[in-house]
Amino acid sequence: MATTTNLYQHLLEKFSYYSTDELIQLNNDTILGQGWGSAKATFRTALLSTFSKRGLDLSNIISKEDGFTSVKHVPVRLEHNVLIPLQS
């Protein structure tokens, strides 16, 4: 648990130096990769947190229903400050 928390904090710090385009590319590369272990999930969570801190609209990939949050595992593009899922 502490390792995951440390990784998350480390990634948040590193991602603050990336451009939004670089972060989108990281997201898309992560989504297209195989497997979803805890390190990959932590990586994506840090990416999404960074997008949110930059004021990007995540509503097309994150939804909340009945107290549950659902995150789509899709590549995205940026359009008018909104992350849009790419069509496969």
Q: What does the secondary structure layout of this molecule look like, with pairings?
A:
Elements: H1 2-15, H2 20-32, H3 38-53, E1 62-65, E2 68-71, E3 76-79, E4 82-85
Antiparallel strand pairs: 1-2, 3-4
The protein's oligomeric status is: single chain
Major sheet summary line:
2 strands, antiparallel
Strand content: 15-25%
Structural class determined from secondary elements: alpha+beta
Fraction of residues in helix: 40-55%
Shape: globular
What's the number of structural domains?
1
Number of helical stretches of at least 4 residues: 3
What's the order of the H and E elements? HHHEEEE
Tell me the strand order in the biggest sheet: 1-2
Number of strands: 4
Which ranges are low-confidence, i.e. pLDDT below 50, for 5 or more consecutive residues?
A: none
Q: How far do the termini sit from each other?
A: 35 Å
Account of the 3D structure:
Helix content is 49%, strand content 18%. It has 88 residues and is α+β, with helices and mostly antiparallel strands. It has one domain. The chain is globular and about 35 Å long. The mean pLDDT is 90. This is 5-oxoprolinase. It comes from Sphingobacterium detergens.
Short note summarizing the structure:
The protein has 88 residues and is an alpha+beta fold.
Which key terms come to mind for this protein?
88 residues; alpha+beta; two-stranded antiparallel ribbon; 3 helices; 5-oxoprolinase
